[in-house]
Amino acid sequence: MSAGRRIRGSGGLSSLLPPPSSLAFSFITAFFLGAVTVFGFAPYYVFPLPVLTLAELFFMWSRAESPRAAAATGFAYGLGLFLFGVSWVYVSLHDFGAMPAPLAAVATFLFCAFLALFPAAAGYACARPAVARAVRYGLLAPAAWTLTEWTRGWIFTGFPWLTFGYSQVPSSPLAGYAPALGIYGVSLAVALSAGILILLWQRAIAAIPHPSSLILRVVLHRSALLLVLVWLAGWALKQVEWTQPVGSPLKVSLLQGNIPQDLKWREDKVLETLETHRALAMLSRSPLIVLPETALPLFLEQAPREYLSELAGHARENGGDILIGVPERLPGGEYFNSVVSFGTAPTQTYRKSHLVPFGEFIPLRPLLGWLVGVLAIPLQDFSRGAEDQRPLAVAGQRVAVNICYEDAFGEEIIRQLPEATLLVNVSNVAWFGRSIAPRQHVQISQARALETGRTMLRATNTGITGVIGPDGELKAAAPEFAVATVTHRVQGYGGATPYVRWGNTAALVLCALLIAAAVAIQRYAARSATV
């Protein structure tokens, strides 16, 4: 083998490892890389890490013997990522859903294996030996990765958790793309950076025979300049104030009742739960008070009239309103996961429209209805609220409410914009115990604040309750698993970021352009080779 051929075959972190002798070696390596990538997300925030591990995955795809082998490597990466990143699903199923441990473990594994199919699909699409190296790394792989993440965000109602764009929120320069292109635009920037890194690494390997010019060759290479441009543009976008303050700052109080999940729905604990939230609310002097999701563990019609009257009267004394998370049952029998306002403004209601599969409804009930008897989850058959609900006019603001993991879907949040001046998320992540899920959820909320240029208020049962500024930074927060109130002065904002106007369309168009460019370059190269 010639020296030139040895150089072309080198590159990536895998060049530092023994040559893979089997698909099993690649599978184990990719699984490890995926597992390590979890440290790039909250609560660890090592944001360069996903760029590095994705770069190595791209390189492994380029060395795969076939598209099937690349798909297997992508599957292993995804399996490591999701088993270590979202295995808290087991806590919901077993610890609080009462599913037998073996069945919960199998269900969690199958769920993570399903999610791993999306990185596998990206690998299959990218592993084309005839595609030039620069085209594969710089165009095809970033587009394929981003498109499969976007697909994961909507198929079968969607599960966009651990989308790579979230790993950059809020501190990375790449987070600056969020208000312009949304979280998938940030993912595209991560994937582009990964592809460029591989090109730079291989440039460095090629320059090894000329050590005197090694640094100069790498630093001045156009790939290095492109990488700097991607990150510099992200930093520059972070400096733009996309929205403008509207009205005077508002004092808000976010209540965290810290009701244990295993006690929350017990009939003998209902009065205690009501009293906990009443006492917290009565201590607040804020014009806007927000209680968490299902703060009242009974239907609104069952809540004591004097209880609701007392809370509404207190809100009026404060010159504002109180938002209460409570299940709501209509005369026809339908029931909703709702937020209802009481106070100076007329009573208004937001009803959750994006429900959690198996938690709030059973998909394919004729086939999977047996799960109702396995899971000890209350209210498993919520109805969906309308998609075109408008912000609640309370406390002098226009408040766009979303419930629990609805804030994982950016294009659904912007339905209430630019009319809304504040975002409010009410959640009960006690379902996930003392796992990393609550911290991951905060990072998702931080992305929504960045995308919309709005302050996000989070009121949760056990944490993390807090205030997120339009720059994505957590301004104030309560400790987890403590009875607490976060009181903070916040600013309403008006105007529309590019993402509010375009949604995910701009990021998807960029992906399509990258794929079109890859096809055009390959066709041009093929024609040139035949001349």
Q: Tell me the major beta sheet.
A: 6 strands, mixed
Q: So how many helices?
A: 19
Within the largest sheet, what's the order of strands?
Answer: 5-4-3-2-1-12
Sheet-strand content, in percent, reads 5-15%
Number of strands: 12
In the predicted model, the low-confidence regions spanning at least 5 consecutive residues are 1-21
| Rounded radius of gyration (Å) | 25 Å
| pLDDT averaged residue by residue | 88
Amino-to-carboxy terminus distance: 29 Å
Judged by helices, strands and strand pairing, the structural class is alpha/beta
Total of domains = 2
Helix content: 40-55%
Mass-distribution shape: globular
Note down, in words, how this protein is organized.
There is one protein chain. The protein is an alpha/beta fold and 531 residues long. It folds into two domains: 3-241 and 504-530, no CATH class; 244-496, Nitrilase/N-carbamoyl-D-aminoacid amidohydrolase. The protein contains 19 helices and twelve strands. The strands form two sheets. It has a six-stranded mixed beta sheet with strand order 5-4-3-2-1-12. Strand 8 (422-427), helix 17 (437-452) and strand 9 (455-460) form a beta-alpha-beta unit. Helix 4 packs antiparallel against helix 6 (101-126), helix 7 (133-152) runs antiparallel to helix 8 (178-206) and helix 8 runs parallel beside helix 19. The chain is globular and about 85 Å long. The protein starts with a helix and ends with a helix. Mean pLDDT is 88; it is low at 1-21.
